Amino acid sequence: MDPLAVLAESRLLPLLTVRGGEDLLGLARVLEEEGIGALEITLRTEKGLEALKALRKSGLLLGAGTVRSPKEAEAALEAGAAFLVSPGLLEEVAALAQARGVPYLPGVLTPTEVERALALGLSALKFFPAEPFQGVRVLRAYAEVFPEVRFLPTGGISPWGRTPTGPVSATM
């Protein structure tokens, strides 16, 4: 299973920050029933790694989000993550992901950051934070300049701007 192909097909990537008490297996069932095959679990709390471990056999494609160091990346991969997502571009995490053969979607905002990611061999990138930086408009412009890049816009983006219920992660 190619994680980037699954993400591209899904067109939606739910993001979960686990605080405790969530029905993780129930969430996995609902996502699968709704045809959503992937879930990004953030490492913003200590419970993120526990959630990855709990859901590793759920059938969902699991990604670790808010990865901010190679140590976190390694722990997330051991816990069951099939892809890694960061708020910014970390060359050490890119190297680790490439060595392990897993996709790494670093956060980028500017053309310079996109070019830097491309130079590292990365062509699937997280556009973050999308909503405050007019993500829809910027990504339309980037599509012409960077046709080889697939963007994962996060941070309150929808085709109409910020959603009424808050941030949504839409994929590639």
Write the layout of secondary structure elements.
Layout: H1 3-10, E1 15-16, H2 24-33, E2 38-42, H3 47-55, E3 61-65, H4 70-79, E4 83-85, H5 91-100, E5 104-105, E6 107-108, H6 111-119, E7 124-127, H7 135-145, E8 150-153
Keywords:
172 residues; alpha/beta; 5-stranded parallel β-sheet; 3-stranded parallel β-sheet; 7 helices; 8 strands; 39% helix
Please sum up the structure shown.
This protein is α/β, with parallel strands linked by helices. The chain contains 7 helices and 8 strands. The strands form 2 sheets. It has a 5-stranded parallel beta sheet with strand order 1-2-3-4-5, with helices on both faces. A 3-stranded parallel beta sheet has the order 6-7-8.
How would you explain this protein's 3D organization?
This protein has 172 residues and is of the alpha/beta class. Helices cover 39% and strands 16% of the residues. It has seven helices and eight strands; from the N terminus they run αβαβαβαβαββαβαβ. It starts with a helix and ends in a 19-residue tail after the last strand. The model is unreliable at 160-172 (pLDDT under 50).
